[in-house]
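Example 9 (inverse folding). The structure is encoded as follows.
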């Protein structure tokens, strides 16, 4: 078992690793988008995030960095959690290869999250509609790289 699997990260560490602001983390916690796995109270309030939480935060940050709305990002995260909860179990070692996409179907304005479909993706691109690929394995690698950059051994 990887020594990172059981490790927890403070809000400050989570913000540094995921490049999200502490205010974003707090807001997402309040909105129950990404709720820390461990929340202990004692002298002050300490909040801790697991690797699973960090992957969810990395996904949110990735989608927001593309200019997508908070609602679309939340929709994608909720979809992935419901459709494939195992994707988040071992964020640094997920080798499922499953791909997903946010895409705009013909005649609709809203983006929908679905399993990647090459034909739908090509048709959307040819019609000038939006498509955003989501590959959990790539997000896991992104998270692993950020853990290394901030000096957290993986």
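The amino acid assigned to each position is listed next.
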């Amino acid at each position: 078992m990887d020594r990172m699997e059981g490790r927890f990260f403070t809000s400050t560490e989570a913000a540094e690793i995921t490049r999200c602001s502490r205010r974003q983390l707090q807001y997402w916690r309040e909105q129950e988008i990404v709720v820390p796995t461990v929340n202990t109270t004692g002298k002050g309030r300490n909040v801790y995030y697991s690797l699973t939480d960090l992957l969810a935060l990395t996904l949110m940050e990735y989608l927001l960095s593309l200019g997508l709305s908070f609602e679309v990002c939340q929709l994608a995260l909720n979809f992935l959690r419901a459709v494939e909860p195992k994707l988040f179990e071992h964020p640094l070692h997920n080798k499922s290869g499953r791909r997903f996409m946010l895409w705009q179907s013909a005649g609709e304005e809203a983006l929908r999250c679905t399993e990647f479909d090459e034909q739908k993706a090509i048709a959307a691109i040819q019609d000038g509609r939006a498509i955003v690929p989501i590959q959990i394995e790539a997000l896991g690698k992104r998270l692993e790289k950020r853990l290394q950059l901030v000096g957290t051994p993986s």
